[in-house]
């Protein structure tokens, strides 16, 4: 809670000094806009400056897994803070990082993804994979393999390399000519049609396995990922799986790749790795990739890359605690019936709004609800109407916080959400759609 005076003061400071991401700041700073301050969280509930509570409908930008202020995660954080908050990974080792690297590799079949490179965010996990792939080909005599393949509408983060791998024009086009050479493909068939002279120049293909998130929650057809792995093996191209969104239970299994028994050459993890507590990322890879970087110092095969907070022990301690909670609370087993439940609730939502809910796309515990001016004819809302944003704003009044992707409303609550809260969340969306889009 904050007093009205505190709210006024902090709002002024925020509007005067904070530049918010992915935000048109003229609208944000407009006098009529009162930002919501989130002051507290407990389980799936978030509380604002006036003590109103909301369901965390998008897991705090897709990060939260076990709920907010989880006792086990809080305890792990405090315990580690009592010892030391940070240790440089440049020249030193620390206990939580060593334990976490072991625990992450233990989630994969023995001898597959055995090496863990820590960084801070999804984007940096991608940067690491990109640089490792390029350097791997240089070190193994194939410097010509220096381009990348990615998919239309892909999203891999906002740092330069990650951004230019992206296929969402509004985010990436402005920077494309300054970044990596990336070829975009609509789907696996289009990629397969690529002539060999062309695929011979590829360092790697990158994909969001099973479901593209920022594209508006778009699932891939079943079998696509396994097909992509086979194609990469045929053409000698490395496979980067960006599981920044799908990792840590979102698809119903710990990792999306498990659904199609795929082992990537690089696995990028972030968002859910700490249960949504701290910035931490990991790029996992194989002994084959790792081995190419070994040599004498003078050979300059070293991977010259790292961040100041690489392997941060606070973040690693919380990530370890999160994996322990997965085991103790049987998070994945308890999620299975809830995925079905989400599916049924969203089918009902669509039936209640046949005109304006055009499509519901779901994979595991991630869903996108596509709003349309007329679902029958497929007519979209004009984008400048910001219908998705207005629906999410209306849902606030009914106790739900989430964020749209254009006119796709995201529903992706923490994995631990109880069934009654899930029903409440969909109910709030239904009311909001009725208010903003009108009947039908
Ligand atoms: C969020 C996201 C990223 C970027 O992660 P950040 O931590 O925001 O840098 C990359 N890839 C996917 C699939 C994501 O959802």
What descriptive keywords fit this protein?
four-stranded mixed sheet, 440 residues, Aspartate Aminotransferase, domain 2, alpha/beta, seven-stranded mixed sheet, binds pyridoxal-5'-phosphate, Aspartate Aminotransferase, domain 1
What does this structure look like?
- This protein is of the alpha/beta class and 440 residues long.
- The protein folds into 2 domains: 36-66 and 331-437, Aspartate Aminotransferase, domain 1; 74-328, Type I PLP-dependent aspartate aminotransferase-like (Major domain) (Aspartate Aminotransferase, domain 2, 3-Layer(aba) Sandwich).
- The protein contains 16 helices and 17 strands.
- The protein has helices at residues 4-17, 25-28, 59-62, 71-83, 95-106, 122-139, 160-165, 169-172, 188-192, 196-199, 224-235, 287-292, 313-328, 331-352, 387-396, 419-437, and strands at residues 38-42, 45-48, 53-56, 115-119, 147-151, 182-185, 202-207, 211-212, 218-219, 238-242, 266-269, 281-285, 357-363, 366-371, 400-401, 404-405, 408-411.
- The strands form 4 sheets. A 7-stranded mixed sheet has the order 4-12-11-10-7-5-6, sandwiched between helices.
- Helix 4 (71-83) runs antiparallel to helix 13 (313-328) and helix 15 (387-396) crosses helix 16 (419-437).
- The longest helix is centred in the last third of the chain and has 22 residues, at 331-352.
- The protein is globular.
- The model has no long low-confidence stretch (mean pLDDT 97).
- Pyridoxal-5'-phosphate binds next to helix 6.
